[in-house]
Amino acid sequence: MAKLPDQLSEITERFGPHPAFSAGVRLATNVEPDKIVKTHCCFCGQQCGIQLKVKDNVVIGFEPWEDFPFNQGMLCPKGVKRYLQGSHPDRLLSALERDESAEGGFRPIPYDQAINRVASEIRRIQSTYGADSFGVLSGASLTTEKAYLMGKFARVALKTPYIDYNGRLCMVSAAAGNKKAFGIDRAANPWSDILRAEVVWISGANVAECAPITTNYVWQARENGAKIIVVDPRITPVARTCDLFLPVKPGRDVALFNGVLHLMIENDWLDHDFIDNHTAGFDAVAEHVREWTPRRTAEVAGITERAIRQAAEMWGEAKSSFLLHARGIEHHSHGVQNVLGAINIVLASGRIGREGCGYATITGQGNGQGGREHGQKCDQLPGARDINNPEHRAYIAKVWGVDEKEMPGAGVDAYELIRKIDRGEIKGLLSICFNPKVSLPDNNFVARMLDKLEFYVAIDFFLNESAHHADIVLPGSLHEEDEGIVTQVEGRVIKINKAVDPPGDAKQDWRIIQDIARAMGRERGFTFNEPREILDELRVASKGFVADYSGVSYEKIERQGGVFWPCPSEDHPGTPRLFEKGSWNPIAKGAGLFYFPDGKARFNVTPYTPPAEDVDEEYPIILTTGRVVSQFLSGTQTRRIGPLVDQYPEPRIEMHPRLAENLGIEDGDWTTAESRRGRITLRAQVVTTIRPDTIFIPYHWAGAKSANQLTIAAQDPISKIPEYKVCAVRVKKAEAAPNWADGGRGE
Amino acid sequence: MAVPSHMEFFIDPNRCIGCQSCVQACGECDTHKGHPMIHLEYVDRAHSTQTAPVVCMHCDQPTCAEVCPADAIKRTGDGVVQTARKPRCIACNNCVLACPFGVPKMKTEFQLMMKCDMCYDRTSAGKKPMCATVCPSGALFFGTREQVEQLRPRSTPVNQFRFGNQAITTKVNMMTPKAGHAEYVDVTAAMNEGAIGKEITLNVLMNGLFSEKESQ
User: Fold this and answer.
1) Of the candidates A366, A391, A299, A341, the residue with the CA atom closest to the CA atom of residue A180
2) pTM (two decimals)
3) Is B27 an 8 Å CB contact of chain A?
């Protein structure tokens, strides 16, 4: 039974996170590496090219890869220090089994024994409660081959509909919005188009800290004459020098977009030819935004009428533009509406599908794009196919060699999957590349649910906080221990190359999954010998639909510096810019630019709804969460890399001096923020760079330092993304320092 | 091998995002592994996210070398002011106190002054310095003057500085805005009054920082 061992401090003592620093051969000078491997960073969706220096099967350092076109050698601090995740003291070198009497609550067991236990528990649970009683949580940092295999494993080997992935916390609002408006979910343009834009509009994207390499594109656009508009409740480093800063009240982005469209219509800053010939639904949207006068917009969005007018004028009069957004507008209970609002002002301008005219979400996770296309999402099959579409099901069933009727239908989103544990519908869970105890909202509830499972198996290379609750932990592979493709922020498919072998009993994740399938007696379809063979099947499985990878090969990626999908054949170079005349489109088939049968993009009416939990007298302050540049997601890797830990050692509560003064809080004071779900005590950071009605806490930490103790599990009705960016809290000076303040980890 | 004379270093604080990539990468350089030599500071975090990276400016007449009683600091023919030579350095701290840019660091554990040497092992072998290679914002840039003029039309490289009566010419350039005023963006002002950053003259910083020729 999955249950957290009593001695938490014993777990962290044994399994970390311990910060690793350069030592030994990594610190020595003039060491000649055995080889230098061109690959990519293991962290965010920018997927910067990097060269890893390898000596005696250890990654000892890096050398910038200046020839890779996207980042040209540039790296953020995470990329610079990523090599320290290898040969780490916390690395899992064997399978672990829960044993209350063992140090840290786990004892090492032989790998095969662990696999057999996993297979027999899955069999036991499924034969007792039905196939649907076992769930899978997967991740978007996996290579596309692995992500594809996870979807196939759930549907074919486990025969459960219940698989979902942590892209649910990241990219799904943008994905859903893009599909509704364009019929395709991918950045519309390569980043080179940012450089040619007259206006760069950045909404809810802390570019400098979450997508650092994109900064250079934004700055270079500015050098070329672009105006930069930043919409954010905080003055992020990119906002500091922008031309127009709109400190929108968290959760009100769609109001701003509606207000801007209102002014575009009023001033006739519209591309009528484009609207008439390439879009549908404009009239209804125009009718809807009529009520979004500058005054009403200002009242709702918490900014001035003048600011809104200036933004509309800059945007409306531009001849070229690039609109970027990220989690800031997407992490909402109406995230899809926010995204559609942004797309409406792009479509009304007609500035898309041409050089210097672009739109994109800044995808967060390493394979945020590729990881959401090929079937580990609960309602999706490879190629971005729909699991409810009979034709799509028939095609994939044929590729997989199974009876279509036996293939499960749509499952549920990751959070609903956790709720199913609460309702007793899911009894067993396999997680890989996902740390829900840290990353899901209201995570004290999530921890209780992990304890409620009859059986929980976690695959990871470090013992992440969710895996603390596992019955069996299987030692997976680091990014540099395997090969495969990922799709980065622009839609460019790139290749991860293997630098070192997994240590000890650790195995490449796709091998582990296949070993489980074999031990369950469901080996058929899970006998791949290398990632290339998985890609070959994925190419067939994706062929003919929107996310067509059939022409993508390792060789073509190396030859071209990446391949932008769709790439429908061997001789096709890929599609860097979508929606151009004549570009390959299997849905419109020549009828138009967009991925609908009539080829027309869709305007969508975007009503404003307030956040699920607005402030009130009891909880009068808005909490918004986000990232810092030196940490990544739930911190499983970055909280173990010493120099990154030192850069920003622990979370702080950012607040405006006006709020701090009202509360009697000074910079550095221990401060307690409390929501209806949880409380946290951290030091205050008093800065004028945030709205006075809002506090900000970064979310990378676990336990007592976890911001997600406070966040709300409200979700967007369409995308099911949680509302990380707004909930109501009350804030006061802490009565005492937290117990981790004297050196404990609080985890 | 020497650093080619057409390759120059340009610092543009206007672009800096404070990510510390330069600091983290500096510590990876073979000549001072584990010891970053770059200074990266918030100017005033309470009021701004502005940060400023400082590498050694590599002065034509380096004050650090002039005040060194042990003659431990040498400027090579290519204009790079090298870190102190270990056999000579007496760790007296003179250079640390005298450098007008605050660059040298006293490493008491080694009894040695260390500072940025423009990644001499890299730049003298035809590579770029580590910091200017990885910097994701372009705040640190290593290239030719023609490149920088083409890529940064809004700014002018400045390499003459004045501290009191001391005029200094440096190998490293500081990018300064052609259009003069520094901008200041304020959240509450943008919420309540107007959204465009208010121009304020940063007298303290601007006056006397540049030579008369450059500030005109």
Assistant:
1) A341
2) 0.95
3) yes
